[in-house]
Every structure is written in C-alpha cells, then in structure tokens.
Amino acid sequence: MSVHKEFKKITTNAIQEMKQRGEKISMITAYDYSMAKIVDEAEIDVILVGDSASNVMAGHETTLPITLDQMIYHASSVVRAVERALIVVDMPFGSYQGNSKEALSNAIKIMKESGAHAVKLEGGQEILESIKRILTAGIPVMGHLGLTPQSIYKFGTYVVRAKEEEEAERLKSDAKLLEEAGCFAIVLEKIPASLAEEVAQSVSIPIIGIGAGGGVDGQVLVIHDMLGINNDFSPRFLRKYANLHQIMLEGLKNYKNDVVSKDFPNTEEQY
Ligand code: KIV
Q: For residue 7, what pLDDT is reported?
C-alpha cells in the first residue's frame, strides 16, 4: 500500500517525488488573495497565476494583452495568501520571445517583485535559449506545450492540437528538449490523451495536463471555469465542481430585494 506523504510546503522537488511515487499532482489557477487562500486551504499542490487572468479577471478575448506588471500584481496578491502550495507565474506574451537577456530580466523581475517560486513559458525549441538563460539564474521553469494560447493568432482556433503525426512528433521532441534543458515540469494543453500519456512516460519530470486525459502526472484547470463562475465556457475536458454563478446571483438578488424592501439592515444589524 502506498502511503501519501504529507508535505508542509510544496517545492519543485516535492512534485518530482510525487511523480516517482505515482501520486497525482493537483494544480489550479488563482489570481487574487482571497481565492488563493481558499485554494491553499484545500491543499491544492500547485497554484498557477495564469495569464488566463487576462480573460477571467480583465475580460480580454485572449491572453495577449496582459502586461508583466499586471502579472506581478496578481502573483504578489497570491503569494501573500499562500503557505503550502508551489506558486508558478505565467510569463506574459512578449516578455520572453524577443531575446533571452530580456527574458531573464523579466523572469527576475517576476521573482523579485512577486515572491513567487517559478515561472511558466509557452513553447519548445523556439524559446529554448530563453528557458536555458532563465534556468542559469536559478529560477525554476515550467514548460507549456500543445495548445499554447499566446499563439492563438498563429493557430487561428482553440481546437485540439497535435492530432497529426508531424505536430505530435514535434511535441514529443520539444518535451525532451525541455526536460534536458532542466524544466521541472511541463503543462500539456488540449492534445490527444494517448500522446500526453506517451510523453508522461517518456520523461522523468511531471507532466500536468489540461484537456490531455488521465494518463499524465497531474491536472490543472482554470478556477473560474471549474467552480462555475464563468458559465459561457464548457469544453469537453472541463468538469464543473460548483455553480458559483448561480449561488452568487441568488445572493446578490436576495440582497437587492432586502435593500429595496427595507428588510436590510434590521435593528440587530445596526449600532
Ligand atoms: O493561463 C492559464 O490559465 C494556463 C492554464 C490553462 C494551464 O496556462
């Protein structure tokens, strides 16, 4: 019988150990103090301050507009709330693709100003130089392959990636390159489950999937989607664990009715 090891603090080594023991890794996004506090209380292993903040927090159509300073603002709010989880911050579009020196100074800025533990970058071979340079500064890097939303205008659509042989082969070789470069984990987004499982078995670092099936080492979802705050996004891979939209709407309508009807505040709710 395998005994689940209790970690006081999740580190990159801890999730590596989890992979070795066959324990699944839980990861979820958070962007603010109050949510991150609940996520940490739930003992989710990894918190991703995702650039999906651009969509769910700021209402942009894509992840492209969010800035480095905005990511640092979200990340530092999360850091103040968390005691246990490993905190990974997305490097935003434009902050690492230009040249590797700029990538390093932007990664250092994120680490210094937010207090987070690691950064995540989208891409393989084409950004390898940036990844290597960031790693030389002692900053842990998580990779991200498959559907990479920062490249949406190149893909033109959010459909499943790497269904064709050529793209699947490129993804497998990118995963190997990221492992060899020293990334501590890789997110695989929206690719066939069989391919994701093959990658997870072929590398020693944890593979965290989103829409990549159950054969990987862990799962990640966007918190607004899985708690049903957003009701207009329902891809096949998304399991909804709550309908917070409904609960919040009811609470707010009840509050409005109580204000209008002068039921709130009552004599016990005043000084
Ligand atoms: O920004 C994000 O939320 C992500 C996840 C979808 C993995 O990168």
A: 84
Closest ligand 1 atom to Cα of 149: 8
In this structure, are residues 47 and 82 in contact, taking their beta carbons and an 8 Å threshold? yes
Q: Which DSSP state fits 218?
A: E
Instruction: Give the model's pLDDT for residue 1.
Output: 45
How many angstroms is it from 185 CA to the middle of ligand 1? 14
> Ligand 1 centre and the CA of 51: distance in Å?
6
pLDDT at 174: 98
pLDDT < 70 regions, the chain = 1-4
Q: What is the pLDDT of residue 238?
A: 98
| 189 carries an active-site annotation | yes
Q: What is the pLDDT of residue 4?
A: 65
Fold of the CATH domain 3-240? TIM Barrel (3.20.20)
For the chain, what are the domain ranges? Answer: 3-240, 243-271
Gap between the Cα atoms of 192 and 207, Å rounded: 14
Q: Answer whether 186's CB lies under 8 Å from 144's CB.
A: yes
pLDDT for 31: 98
Separation CA 264–CA 72 (nearest Å): 39
Question: What is the best residue among 39, 220, 229 to mutate for testing ligand 1's pocket, by most ligand atoms within 8 Å of CB?
Answer: 220
pTM over 0.85: yes
Question: 160, 190 in Cβ contact below 8 A?
Answer: yes
Angle, vertex CA 147, rays to CA 136 and CA 49, nearest 5 = 55
Task: Compute how many other C-beta atoms are within 10 angstroms of the C-beta atom of residue 228.
Answer: 18
CB-based pocket (< 6 A), ligand 1: 29, 48, 50-52, 90, 187, 189, 210, 220, 222
